[in-house]
């Protein structure tokens, strides 16, 4: 006879309460069982001590006889330290695929390249600012180029003034 350690539901509608039982695998979920070995109340908080109650001696006996726990009961037994349960999910399933990994690497490379370019631009700007700050101290005498630039600027402003006058008349 194959024996299972499983939950047997009790309680009212929308108010579940479970017995942890050792039962023949052929018997119905809420039917005949060999022995009640614990209780489970899912309505209590997860950190509450009364949520899962187990009779450890009887659980160890039934496991020794060859009883197989259901998934939920195996979780309870693992948490109680009675039975070691191997995780059932595949940790590699959550990892991104090859193409997504390549895209992420390319994005990271572009970000580092942009960051390096930004740092280089900032350094060049600092050097230019330092050079500009030092240049007037060294070259105080040459004022002639500034005077030559002034007539050119005045000549550029004159046609712009004529264009605005034409628009005003029209």
Automatic annotation (TrEMBL):
Domain of life: Bacteria
Keywords: Ribonucleoprotein, Ribosomal protein
Low complexity biased stretches: 151-162
Record Gene3D superfamilies: 3.30.1320.10
Classification via InterPro entries: Ribosomal_bS16 (IPR000307), Ribosomal_bS16_CS (IPR020592), Ribosomal_bS16_dom_sf (IPR023803)
Endpoints of the signal sequence: none
Designated name of the protein: Small ribosomal subunit protein bS16
Organism taxonomic ancestry: Bacteria, Pseudomonadati, Pseudomonadota, Alphaproteobacteria, Sphingomonadales
């Amino acid at each position: 006879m194959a024996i299972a350690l499983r939950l047997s539901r009790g309680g009212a509608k929308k108010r579940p309460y479970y017995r942890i039982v050792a039962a023949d695998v052929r018997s119905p979920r809420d039917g005949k069982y060999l022995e009640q070995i614990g209780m489970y109340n899912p309505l209590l908080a997860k950190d509450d001590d009364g949520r899962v109650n187990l009779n450890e001696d009887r659980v160890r006996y039934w496991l020794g006889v060859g009883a197989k726990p259901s998934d939920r009961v195996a979780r309870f037994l693992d948490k109680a330290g009675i039975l070691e349960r191997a995780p059932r999910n595949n940790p590699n399933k959550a990892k991104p695929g090859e193409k997504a990994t390549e895209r992420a690497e390319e994005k990271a490379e572009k970000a580092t390249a942009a960051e390096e370019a930004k740092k280089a631009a900032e350094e060049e700007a600092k050097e230019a600012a330092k050079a500009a700050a030092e240049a007037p101290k060294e070259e105080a005498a040459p004022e002639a180029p500034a005077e030559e630039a002034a007539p050119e600027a005045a000549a550029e402003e004159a046609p712009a003034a004529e264009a605005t006058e034409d628009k005003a008349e029209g």
